[in-house]
Amino acid sequence: NVHETIVKCEMFKRGEKVAIGASGGKDSTVLAYLLNTLNKRYDYGVELLLLSIDEGIQGYRDDSLKAVERNRLQYGLPLTTLSYKDLYGWTMDEIVSKIGTKNNCTFCGVFRRQALDRGALMLGANKLVTGHNADDMAETILMNLLRGDIARLQRSATIVTGSDGCLPRAKPLKYTHEKDIVMYAHFKKLDYFSTECIYAPNAYRGYARFVHYE
What we know:
- By secondary structure, the protein is α/β, with parallel strands linked by helices.
- It has one domain (2-213): HUPs (Rossmann fold).
- Helix content is 52%, strand content 12%.
- Helix 2 links the parallel strand 1 (17-21) and strand 2.
- Keywords: ATP-binding, Nucleotide-binding, Transferase.
- Pfam families: ATP_bind_3.
């Protein structure tokens, strides 16, 4: 139960401005829908806004951002979109054309996290929430175990991070499995983008996902 997770972890404080990392995919769409609904139903007293990052991946991100725009209208939440081009001076397509397809998902992940942090701070948000689910968390823990990255292993198991002075990040869907999110999105007839990133087949996470499901 997402509401129980939010309450038990004392995830939000009344008056906070909470930025939702919105990609247009099922996880962030379900997260935006749930937080918008629960905030009204249980009177969390937080201000919600959508924050999207345009990595500059033609045929993927441009289409998924159209879904986010529809969500903005459906949920009545303000939307801000920042691009790699504006923040860093180049798009992900341009990066891949220079470095090739190896490790580009690792680079993109770092750039995206930084972009979300910068965007949330720019908007004056007190907290950033992402749609990471239980399966994502298991894969991340496996990845860090396989790499022997102890520092990241500890952070990846935490539901709220950033208590050391950084912008706090929270994962309200941490205990919700992917299959339940898909079923919920289907049941509620939510509008989301379901195509995988064109560079995803080369991602190390794919190996961790294979190990996880085996």
